[in-house]
Design a protein that fits this description.
Layout lengths: L1 E10 L4 H21 L6 E7 L2 E10 L5 E9 H4 L8 H9 L8 E5 L2 E10 L4 H5 L3 H6 L19 E8 L2 E2 L3 E2 L2 E2 L3 E3 L7 E3 L6 H6 L7 H19 L7 H8 L5 E7 L9 H12 L2 E4 L5 E10 L5 H26 L4 H7 L4 E3 L3 E2 H18 L4 H13 L7 H5 L6 H9 L4 H9 L14 H20 L13 H15 L5 H11 L12 H18 L4 H7 L7 H14 L5 H15 L20 H16 L4 H9 L2 H10 L7 H18 L12
Antiparallel strand pairs: 1-3, 1-7, 2-3, 4-6, 5-6, 7-8, 9-10, 11-12, 13-15, 14-15, 16-17
Length: 689
């Protein structure tokens, strides 16, 4: 016989961003608890509002599953004395299992006999098991926690009530001084405290008290109401899903409404208007049919439609106050020049251990100048890039960005355009922050992409230079995101960049304070960037052994590594892939036995060839050197033709010949061949099945 169980945790209003992760965590921990306790169920329904987290377990078994247990005890030598009598150790073991010593039997394990007891454990009643579900409640983790009263206990918000019902029966649990019952609380202003007669009544009981406890239903209601308002007013509303999620977790009984603001505020850049409405007031912006921003907004009330006119009026007044501030900042900021703001950056720290923001821009100018030539920017693109690199952080000290930090870069673009900079400069200033999340949008212009790479590279090398290196989950300066952004931009643009050459250039030429040692932690930084390349290739479903191959022992060029990995991944299914890689890997492994490395001056002595296969391999390799391509696909095809010459070579020749000259000549041949193969990475790391 199965039943349904309801657990509800009633709280003070939680922050919106905590609600969804917390209910997901509660459901996951509840499922794990039931599995660990051998309680079967069909599914777990999740319910959440700002004031509650609840799970409904459907078709929960009425008892634990019975199990047979074989318990291991002491060795036979300890369990019995010389006369075969049970020792106190054996009797204690049996007692601990609820059995007698006569139930003991022996089995051999790794050459030693041990005492065992076989017993049948009858499952406990589900009510007895659920009494321990309080551990699930107290084990929830939150990004912020608080204490209340005199309790030495931390939680996201104070717990005010608990509901614990098995069908219509209370399952007693207690957290601090809060004992579970069947009483829950309705909407803070519209509802009241009510009893839940049975688990199946939960949703409708709360609905009667102005609480829509199903988060998905609540979100659908908001979306439908927004669409209705948009249709009635002939508007276009592109519902921001993140904002919808946030608003949904701020209300228990949603009623959507719309308001207006004066058209004069439309003279403010729309990004400012949208940010002010969205981030400060949780309003949805509205557009007219022609796509232009309308002087209107949509918001959601936590309640019904009574006195909605007062709510609209109040929200309009609050928004106007915010827009007045934005209008003032926008006009005030334009009274100064870009040069004024840039000069002010001389007093703004990038980081106390590294220097000012102005000094960072000077370094980025140098890096950008180098990259512009590597990436073959046109004269106009390079001109825009270098001008942008001289000023691109200026908006950080404007009033607008001080008030709305999320507008950094955006206001830089707006103000630079107003103050006479070219479109290329303005776009680069905005794009240098991209991507602003791991999978966020990438820069579109070459100048913007180059500035973004230069800015992120500067952050990486300077933070590593002073030992501020991410560890574990600790990454306060978002260096992982910045390094991953570099990899993604290079891949999108198809820009090859030898990071070893870049590092060498910067160490030699970059103007930095004496306190910055660019040689410090250089290898750690290399590994950090390679880890981001590995992360990127994982998103492309590249095999881990192929990732190992291309990221080990080769030229440090992210795009080359990525392209090579994708080429190898595409050829995995080829019928000859196994034999080709095996042949090439034999060269790789044996070439390592040479006590010298490849150089352009390294030559073989053909007069020392003893077998035709030596000349055949030599000719085949020389032909590839003459025609070799930087394209990974073409190089793989060329190297594939070496399979037969390599196999013949190893069949006919002993590499480690007794004659030192012949041995070194053959090792030289392998080192020269391996130099070609190494352009694909360390193929010996590829697992061949």
């Amino acid at each position: 016989m199965t039943k349904n169980y309801l657990l509800e945790i009633g709280l003070e209003e939680m922050p919106a961003h905590v609600v969804t992760p917390s209910i997901n965590q509660l459901a996951q921990k509840t499922a794990a608890f039931l599995k660990d306790n051998r309680i079967s169920f069909s599914k777990i329904e999740k319910y959440s509002t700002p004031r509650r987290l609840a799970v409904m377990i459907e078709d929960i078994a009425d008892k634990q599953t019975d199990i047979d247990v074989k318990a291991k005890g002491p060795s036979k030598q300890i369990a019995q004395d010389a006369d075969g009598n049970w020792t106190k150790a054996a009797e204690g073991f049996a007692r601990g299992q609820g059995m007698s010593a006569d139930d003991i039997f022996f089995e051999e394990l790794k050459g030693t006999e041990y005492a065992y007891i076989q017993k049948h454990e009858t499952g406990k009643d589900v009510k007895d098991v659920l009494a321990d579900i309080v551990d699930v409640i107290t084990d929830l983790t939150f990004p912020t926690r608080m204490r209340w009263d005199s309790y030495d206990f931390e939680y996201i918000r104070p717990i005010h009530w608990l509901v614990s019902l098995l069908d219509d029966e209370i399952v007693p649990i207690k957290v601090l001084d809060v004992e579970a019952g069947r009483s829950t609380r309705g909407h803070r202003f519209l509802g009241k405290t009510v009893d839940i007669k049975s688990v199946r009544d939960y949703v409708e009981t709360l609905r009667s008290q102005f609480v829509i406890v199903d988060a998905k239903e609540r979100k659908d209601i908001i979306r439908d109401q927004i669409n209705t308002i948009a249709t009635d007013n002939d508007w276009i509303v592109d519902v921001d899903e993140d904002l919808l999620e946030e608003v949904n977790n701020l209300v228990e009984y949603p009623t959507t409404f719309h308001g207006k603001f004066a058209e004069k505020y439309l003279e403010i850049p729309e990004e400012v208007l949208i940010t002010s409405m969205k981030d400060n007031q949780r309003y949805f912006d509205v557009r007219q049919k022609d796509g232009k921003l309308a002087p209107d907004f949509i918001s959601v009330r936590n309640g019904n439609s009574e006195f909605i006119e007062n709510v609209v009026s109040g929200n309009e007044k609050v928004l106007v106050a915010r827009l007045e501030d934005a209008d003032f900042f926008f006009k005030e900021d334009q009274k100064k020049s870009i040069a004024d703001y840039v000069n002010k950056l001389k007093t703004v720290n990038f980081h106390v251990k590294i220097g000012t923001m102005y000094e960072k821009m000077q370094r980025v100018h140098q890096i950008a100048d180098y990259l512009a030539d590597v990436f073959e920017l046109s004269a106009d693109e390079k001109k825009d890039l270098l001008r942008a690199s001289d000023i691109y952080k200026f908006d950080l000290v404007t009033n607008m960005v001080d008030e709305f930090p999320e507008l950094q870069g955006i206001m830089g673009e707006k103000y630079s355009s107003i103050m006479g900079e070219t479109d290329g400069v303005a776009h680069a200033i905005r794009e240098h922050y991209m991507p602003i999340s791991a999978e966020g949008d990438l820069p579109e212009t070459k100048a913007g992409a180059t500035l973004a790479i230069a800015d992120k590279l500067d952050s990486l090398i300077t933070f590593y230079a002073v030992g501020l290196i991410p560890s574990g989950s600790n990454d306060p300066y978002a260096l992982r995101r910045q390094a991953y952004g570099i990899v993604r931009i290079l891949d999108q643009k198809g820009w090859e960049l030898n990071l070893n050459d870049l590092q060498a250039y910067l160490i030699k030429n970059l103007t930095v304070p004496a306190t910055l040692d660019l040689n410090a932690n250089e290898k750690e930084l290399d590994g950090f960037i390679i880890d981001r390349i590995r992360q990127f290739l994982n998103t492309k479903a590249v095999r881990s052994d192929i990732i190992d191959a291309v990221t080990d022992g080769r030229i440090f060029d992210p795009v080359s590594m990525i392209n090579t990995a994708q080429v190898l991944q595409e050829h995995v299914a080829d019928t000859n892939f196994k034999t080709v890689v095996e042949a090439l890997s034999r060269v790789v492994n044996l070439a390592q036995k040479a006590d010298f490395k490849y150089s352009d001056s390294l030559k073989m002595d053909e007069s020392l060839f003893e077998n035709p296969s030596e000349k055949s391999l030599n000719d085949a390799v020389a032909d590839i050197y003459d025609k070799q391509s930087d394209d990974a696909e073409k190089l793989f095809e060329q190297l594939s033709t070496l399979k037969d010459p390599i196999n013949a070579y190893f069949e006919e020749n002993m590499i480690m010949d007794k004659d030192e000259k012949i041995k070194n000549n053959r090792l030289t041949q392998l080192v020269i061949t391996n130099n070609l193969i190494a352009k694909l990475g360390d193929l010996s790391k590829i697992v061949i099945k």
